[in-house]
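STRUCTURE REQUEST FORM
Protein name: non-specific serine/threonine protein kinase
Source organism: Ceratosolen solmsi marchali
Requested output: structure tokens
Priority: standard
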Amino acid sequence: MEPALDIYQYIYDLPLIERRQLCKALNEDNKWEKLAAEMSYDSYEIGKLRNKEDPTDQLFTMWGEYNHSLSELFVILSRIRYYQLMTILKPFVHSRYHVLLNNVKDNYNKIVQNEKQTKDTKDLKIGVQNFNHNQKPDENTIKVIVNQNTKEDSIKILNQPIQQQQQNETPSNSDNLLISIPTIFKTLLPRISYDELTAATDNWNKENILGKGGFGTVYKGIWKNTEVAIKKLEPRGSDYDESYTLQIAQSFREIRILNSLPHENILPLYAYSAGSKAPCLIYQCMKNGSLEDRLHLKHGYPALNWLQRQVIAKGTARGLQYLHTIHEKPLIHGDIKSANILLDRNFEPKIGDFGLAKEGSSNDFLKVSKIQGTRPYLPEEYIFGRCLSTKIDTYSYGIVLFELATGLSAYDKSRPTNKRLKEYIDNFDDSDLHLLKDKRAGEKYEEAYKYLMSLGKWCSNKLAAHRPEMSVVYEKFEN
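Status: completed
Returned output:
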């Protein structure tokens, strides 16, 4: 019989016994390091995990925060040939993935092919089925080439036009990786060459790296005598598979959104590069980094004072209410967190990373087929009920307010209980909330602390109906 897949879907849903079995096996001889590399973690992040008592468990926790599924883990284990560990996961993934235990490479394409034929390609899931349709692309669309730096025939053109004689064939997602990039980008947003960016970053000098993630690397550069941040989309691991294709699709969704919705509290996108070794997005460089870095004093940053924190909270609310109200149907960001709030030289916040943004309903919530975002910032009705609405952003914003007020992380595994900040704060009586105040912010304007905590509790209410719209939140700051 099939397992209850709606129960065992994500990494954090795996029962404790099986999780411990995986951790024990992967911790032996540091087998987890190969898994971490395949999950796109770099040597620096892997080095930090080596110091953990149970590095595999910490790895699963980190990966699980981004709502990765057990089926994804099953596929990765097959790629690195950890077949014995796949048998532990086998009862918790759909039977269509079980063939990976027999023949990894040949059968993986069959799985993806079967999924494409059996799933509704018009559902709300942001996945390859929504951009890999069997239609002849516009001959004028841009070709995004992914170069594997191996043999010439391994270069893949992500949106290469399908030949006429192939029109009746159903393409395999893993082999063709079709992405349509609207021609409008060529006229409304500058498209620049990869060589220009190579020069702008001093040949992608490691000293210019601002940050890394599953998507690739962000570099600081000088382009057109302007300081910019360049997001270079590059896969981690041996395969150019659906995860990389999805990242590229999300990035071009980000181009469309940022190109059409300019606002003082939305991160400006200057240009993009496509058609060469790696697609790139070029943003305005934020002098004061991310809110997350500032709150945790990374890179030698001094602590934010209360006035700066209030300016950041107000500006973020302004940006969100703009997204929710600019069109008839709201645009839901879907991944509001301190790491995605960037600060300019005046500490004015800019909301970034629109790769998960979705159009919502003007009247009610929408049901989605896949949960995306960062778990500690997501409400229960979305995690368990898959109900998408603007109130998702409101809840996430409430968690950011808690971070601003306390200086604590949205998730902290070192806490013995209540590892999520929302649960941790809810465990305090109102009379004791002053104990959580971030003393590093100083004493001047410290009355802002109570206001941030009060507003944070309102925005992160368990019931979506009891949370305010972001336009109401912004009005509170104005008043």
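Reviewer notes: The longest strand covers residues 216-223. The CA atoms of residues 295 and 407 lie 6 Å apart.
Form closed.
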